[in-house]
Amino acid sequence: MTNPRILVLIPARMAATRLPGKPLMDIAGLPMIVHVLRRAEAAGIGRVAVATDAPEIAAAVTAHGFEAVMTRADHPSGSDRIHEAMGRLDPEGAADIVVNLQGDFPTILPDQIRSVLAPLADPAVDIATLAAEIHTEEEDLNPNVVKAVGSPIGPRRLRALYFTRATAPWGEGPRYHHIGLYAYRRAALERFVRLPPSPLERQEKLEQLRALEAGMRIDVMIVDTVPRGVDTPADLETARQILSKA
To answer: Taking the complete model, does pTM exceed 0.90, yes or no?
Structure first.
């Protein structure tokens, strides 16, 4: 029995810049979005739904027995889309935690989805997210790999101080690859979407900096591996190889 206090929402749209239509790309005989849905359901933490503005995505989702909610087409970000979906699916406010799971993580592990909830046991935390330790120089230097910089506050947990595309922090010691999976307190999500884009958010092109600049607390759980995101045709082929063997 999943927890009615938790919504797991997967924003999905057809207009991805580098790989248009990617939610419906075939991977091992299923649309990519269905692989993500199956992993979200396997996590067993709450009600799962896709938030989309595309009828063809909604049709694929419902054809495979999952739930979809239609949202406006003009949302600037996935956070805005899941906020609208939250209001449509749960207007009474029964859910007080909303998980934002990217629709292009077909290889994410159910345990990783579950692990993002742990920091919210602390009432001081507004938003929780994930990261994994970086082990290669290529990953370290790649500006497309976002680094989570934070203070250790317990086993496998950081309090986030900053997120950056640069190689940071400087010097010897671990660096962490941020994973774009978030768990928001409902009130934190409502506050976040009302905030204007912040200066560092605009400079780094990282939405989570808006929350930090507004004084919101983000804690980071450290997991063992980074799930394979799908942003390019090469990523898609890699995901196909992984999931064809699963």
So the answer is: yes
